[in-house]
Amino acid sequence: MKKNKMIVFAGNVGAGKSTFTNIISNKIEFKPYYESVVDNPFLEDFYYNQKRWSYHLQTYFLFHRFKSIKDIIDKEVNAVLDRSIYEDSEIFAKNLYMNNKMSKPEYDSYKQIFDTMLQYLKKPDLLIYIKTDVKTILKRINKRGRQMEIQTPIEYWEQLNDLYNNWINDYDQSPIYIVDGNEFDIIEKPKLVNDIVENIKTLI
Question: Domain tally for the chain?
Fold first, then answer.
């Protein structure tokens, strides 16, 4: 396989992106890149005061994603990312702006940074969208037990879900492979992995 192939996962919080990234990257021997969650200095504060910390949080995520993709380009490695950079702008930042949690100057500034970054990055060779409903999302959020996520109102997850449904319908940056995240639980049903891997190899 040629070098510098890049697969990105996409999907709502709790869809299973990190789990998929870990298992699939091992199966196809690609280097995994994960979203900066544990070491993100703004994440917990954000869930308690979204308006105060939304711009800080989103710019931190965006910068971390940019660094990951730049690393993939520079090192010419085959890689799997557990979230696409497009979601940062088209889902999370947009949702915060629409709900007045990010001001217009902050959002405009964020969009300028995002648009500039895209000029220096390669597009994915494949985007794998884990399509899940809100009921599944809430089940997995409760299962992993992050208190800051558990206490978030259901309306927040529903708004993200609506944005995801609209975004994926218009996405045109790469081929798309859609996985039913409600049915395809690769922890509970590990036999599904081989089918997914074969489909990925065909698509890239």
Answer: 1
Q: Write the pLDDT tens digit of every residue in 66-110.
A: 999 999 999 999 999 999 999 999 999 999 999 999 999 999 999
Confirm whether 1 is domain-assigned: no
Catalytic positions, please? 82
Banded model confidence at residue 165, pLDDT cuts 50, 70, 90: very high
CATH of the domain at 98: 3.40.50.300
Please give the C-alpha separations between residue 89 and each of 46, 85, 123, 131, 164, in angstroms, as whole numbers. 17, 7, 15, 19, 12
pTM: 0.89
Name the percent of the chain lying above pLDDT 90.
62
Question: Whole-angstrom Cα distance, residue 153 to residue 132?
Answer: 18
- For the CA atoms of 59, 107, 174, 166, the dihedral, rounded to the nearest 10 degrees, stands at 130
Residues making up the annotated binding site for substrate are: 35, 47, 58, 83, 88, 149
